[in-house]
């Protein structure tokens, strides 16, 4: 695309965005929301409150919900510990995943179903 064509396209997009903005500025709902926001911010300033304080006051359960998400972050849930015992050798393998080297060798040697039958217990 030539530079001139790109310029004309951007100019048309700008014109469309300006029309959309003017339409929104005339919308009574937007005016009402902007007025509410301004009054709320003035009230918060007057009483020395932050947005988090207002949310905690209006929705106490929200504080508990955010505490849970921030404490765990985006981390996955920890896998359960599986404990296998080979009845032929008495060897024990504890793993949280299926890629354990020893477990993989058992499954190659004895088969998946046989090794899964050796599952002694699962722990959290």
Automatic annotation (TrEMBL):
Coiled coil, from the record = 4-34
Hydrolase listed as a keyword: no
- Keywords attached to this entry: Coiled coil
Give the protein name, as stated in the record: DNA binding protein
In terms of InterPro entries, this protein maps to: MvaT_DBD
Q: Where is the MvaT DNA-binding domain?
A: 82-118
Q: Which domain of life is it from?
A: Bacteria
DNA repair as UniProt keyword: no
